[in-house]
Write the structure tokens for this entry.
Amino acid sequence: MTEDNYDENDELRIGVYICHCGSNIASVVTPSEVVDYASTLPGVVIAKEHRYMCSDPGQSLIQGDIKAYGLNRIVVGACSVAMHEPTFRACISEAGLNPFMFEMANIREHASWVHSHEKDQAIVKAKDIVAAAVAKVSHVKPLQMFQVPVTKRALVIGGGIAGISAALDLADMEVETYLVERSPTIGGKMAQLDKTFPTMDCSICIEAPKMVDVGKNKNIKLLTYSEVKEVNGYIGNFNVTVERKPRYVLLDRCTGCGLCSEVCPISVPNDFEEGLGPRKAIYVPMAQSVPSTYTIDMDACIECYKCVEACGPLEAINFAEKPEIIELEIGTIIVATGYDTWDPSEIEEYGFGVYQNVTTMMEIERLHCAGGPTVGEFMRPSDRTTPKTLGLIQCVGSRDKRYNEYCSGFCCMYTIKNALLLKWLYPEIDITIFRIDIRAPGKTYEEFSERARQAGIHFVQGRPAEIREDPITKNLT
């Protein structure tokens, strides 16, 4: 059946084929029982089983039945569509059937594997999955693939390490690329990190050269302090509206000398330093910022114009600057918008935001980083002294039905990394990690965890119920 000879009034003639997948399916789900059930479904003309449907004999069985029984739709109960859907589409296409007159019923990942100890329930579920596939394939129509012209221009949304890497890869392929970042600089969260785990490499040493490459690459148009407002169009041909927010400092005139910031009388908490240090109302987020152009925070600025005087003949500051709307024609879009850290103040029993010495892991990161607000000196926020003991609590806000039930897959190794760094810098600090269990999902992560134990870091299984503060010493228990 092809698109040319398709008639929606034709009789449904569906073939159902159940795969054993060796013992992956057959050891839990009885294929013959599913075959018998499938035979009773509306429109099913033939139902069979085979040890390996994806094998040449299995595919030949399907092709032979298409011709012998005049089948016009096929259902295969086997593994994931990601594994063998292209295989079976090609199989039925060779037999003269449109490749889209096919449906995969995943009875391996969705039935036998997840219910290996519940065989009765697995069979019931497998039957339901096959029935759903038969119902769906009853309504499919033959389709034809065709090529769509693609605009050779890409948009990457997000200027963290993922967006930077994607933009550079596209640029290396001579694809004109727009990199949109809502902050005044690219770099993202990685720029805030001191080291990366498990290799303990310098984070900014890895990222800064890539940031510079982005700024200089002729194939990359960098749109910082900008946001995507609207996307229209279709695959290969998108119309994207980007709003570039006013910096009030001109990109083509600012030299990054910093004189404007020196004379600015206003200081506010520095977002890049997690609020642990100050920045001026006219600022660059960090020394390695790309672009290195300053930005005026109009929520903090009092418009005293001292920065204008300091800038002098360069005339790089323009308080009359307005938002700019940029229309782009884009062929492909990569979304690399990253993540944000969870606000632990929701867990009142831990006292974050109430007790000065209860901090987040990102705040600890900035405190021991040589480029941080304390120039690498780790100290308590309350009295600026080095703590003698340090408790690190895992799974705050995750693996918790009250907040987020999932595991981030990140915080175990991230906590261990910071614990190891602090232990190396301050061997006298007694460090304890409170954990539910340690999840080490990456290569050498288990060894990384073992290094922490060998370094004398303590692990306590359990989630602290409450944190209390001594009002005089500010010590925590």
